Amino acid sequence: MATATHTATALSVTKIGGRIGAEIGGVRLGGGLSDDDVAGIRAALLAHKVVFFRGQGHLDEAAHEAFAELLGAPVAHPTVPSADGRYALGIDSHHGARANQWHTDVTFVPAYPAFSILRAVTIPPYGGDTLWANTATAYAGLPEPLRALADGLRAVHSNEYDYAALRPDALPEALAQYREVFTSTTFLTEHPVVRVHPETGERTLLLGNFVQRIQGLTGRDSRALLDLFQAHIESPENTVRWQWQAGDVAIWDNRATQHYGVDDSDDHERTLRRVTVDGDVPVGPDGVPSRLISPETVPDPSFGIPSGASTGSASTGSAA
Ligand SMILES: [Fe+2]
């Protein structure tokens, strides 16, 4: 039986996996939460990497965004138009690519989001679970020689990759349309493979499906090392799996996790909304920050609101 701890505000945090994941009860999410509740949620999020809330069906786009503001500054996706003209990204089984690859959100820009907040609107009668993996325990569990190897590596991440290889059954027009929107600006960013977490100080593996290659290696060596590290991240003991109900909310620390949306609900509708909170530019164990390789200048915030993509430019000096 899991144990729950209670704070003065009746917020309960119940661990649901050995290395990652907790369910939080006793709170109605929205913009009016007390400072104590926000602090409790943030602490649980940093400790457990992903936290889940049932029964938050009262949230709409505005309340979702108002809650996000309590954790930081909301940011739009750098290239994909939002669902509401502001910050909510639509994740819809009937449109766009499915997220059935392990990834960390938006790592193709330097200061990718710190937190993602995902709200379930319509959930299929079966399937469509999401898995999260803890990239801090993945690093900590590596044998020392592999930790030392990872510490010295840097990898190039991009939003330009082979969609057709990921969705061999998709119609060519659908793939072309998605690619055109998702890569309307092609970003290339170099990140350390090991990121020092800015709040916890933990070392985390910064990889996932936006990685193109490890700097300085041949394609074959790069692939072999990526597969090696990724296998430690994806190990079942290092993950938690969530079976969604409509009205659920999941929040993850995007700096210490990867996630995977399981594509097994056939043609049933599955609709979620995501709001992300701005992050900062990663640094490796050597203190060297991530850097934007291209474009030379980051376009104006997409769709008239901040996308977060340009916040990474300060350290590179390459963009306004
Ligand atoms: Fe994602």
TrEMBL record:
This is TauD/TfdA family dioxygenase. Residues 278-320 are annotated as: Disordered. Residues 278-289, 307-320 have a biased composition (Low complexity). Gene3D superfamilies: Clavaminate synthase-like. Residues 13-276 form the TauD/TfdA-like domain. The keyword Secreted does not apply. It comes from the Bacteria. The keyword Membrane does not apply. The lineage of its organism: Bacteria, Bacillati, Actinomycetota, Actinomycetes, Kitasatosporales. PANTHER family: ALPHA-KETOGLUTARATE-DEPENDENT SULFATE ESTER DIOXYGENASE, ALPHA-KETOGLUTARATE-DEPENDENT SULFONATE DIOXYGENASE.
